[in-house]
Amino acid sequence: MIQRKKHNNVLPGFGPSLGFTIFYLSVIVLIPLSALVFRAAGLTWGEFIDTVTAPRVLASYKVTFGSAIIAACINSVFGVIVAWVLVRYRFPGRRIVDALVDLPFALPTAVAGITLATIYSPNGWIGKILEPHGIKIAFTPLGIILAMTFIGLPFVVRTVQPVIEEIEVELEEAAVCLGANRLQTILRVIVPLLLPSVITGFALSFARGVGEYGSIIFIAGNMPMVSEITPLLIITKLEQFDYRGATAIACVMLLASFSMLLVINLLQRWTRRFAE
Questions:
Q1: Contacts of 121 by beta carbon, 8 Å cutoff, 6+ apart
Q2: Of 43, 124, 187, 217, which one has the fewest beta carbons inside 10 Å?
Q3: By the 8 A CB rule, do 160 and 79 touch?
Q4: Nearest-angstrom CA–CA distance, 1 and 9
């Protein structure tokens, strides 16, 4: 009779680990989100629709999601270029540049917003150069795109960088030997390999931009119907003691966050299958 050996682990078993995991997630994630939904449930369906589709709220959706998409597109292009340079080239100060990519992760968002507003304001270092040409960045929707681009760049670079490191240079050399020019090598060899990770980086950058608040309020101008983002509108309703309205708008953002999380997970699964 074969006896199975019992493996004793130093860490707790499945039961205690699962119980602690469920308890921790419930306290930190599920209970606060449930409270948000229950608070919004105090509104009737008609009141909920009227609240989340008010002209000012719709304008904030347009500014928030539109700016996040533009910023994610910009990061998808220049983030790939930055990652390619950091992986494929060796130059003085490369490690410093590589560390600067992670700066938006470590920098407090309020500090980033104040810095961007100071530099790009009409009296700032860059703003005073652009102002005579009719280009105004600070306190406009363009400043929102700039802030979202700043905080979203690391997501694209760090997502694409490991994929570039795994691309063998021999593939590019083989394409050249078969008669492909540089453009054909990029479009038919490099782009298909990078596309899954670029899409994932785009989704992460977009999700980060939609939820950003601290760095945007200092450079946006925060004008209703013009440069007011949805997170700021939620804060405004809370200051006005309109808790139901704030939670209704928050539920819409929560639904958008869950949708983006689902898309990101599907993209990551597709990326793993593509790599295999």
A1: 127, 138, 139
A2: 187
A3: yes
A4: 25
User: Residue 56 and residue 69: Cα distance in Å, rounded?
Assistant: 20
Closest by Cα among 264, 219, 203 to 72: 203
How far, in whole angstroms, is CA 6 from its chain's centroid? 45
The answer on pLDDT for 223 being more than 70 is yes
**What confidence tens digit (pLDDT) does each residue in 51-91 have?**
899 999 999 999 999 999 999 999 999 999 999 999 988 88
Closest CA to 201 of 157, 234, 164: 157
- Contact between 105 and 119 under an 8 Å Cβ cutoff? The reply is no
Mean pLDDT, to the nearest integer, of 172-180?
80
* Domain range annotation of the chain: 42-166+198-275
**Nearest by Cα to 264 from 215, 213, 208:** 208
Crossing angle between the packed helical segments 55-88 and 191-211, to the nearest 10 degrees: 140
Among the listed residues 265, 270, 275, the one whose alpha carbon sits nearest the alpha carbon of residue 165 = 275
> Could you tell me the two tokens for 129?
């150069």
Averaged over 32-61, what is the pLDDT? Answer: 83
**What tens digit of pLDDT does each residue of 210-219 get?**
988 888 998 9
Q: Which of 40, 22, 18, 20 is closest to 30 using CA atoms?
A: 22
Give the burial string for 65-94 (b: 16+ CB within 10 Å, else e).
Answer: bebbbbbbebbbeebbebbbebbeeeeeee
- CA R_g for the chain: 23
Q: What single DSSP character describes residue 11? A: S
Superfamily of chain region 42-166+198-275: MetI-like (1.10.3720.10)
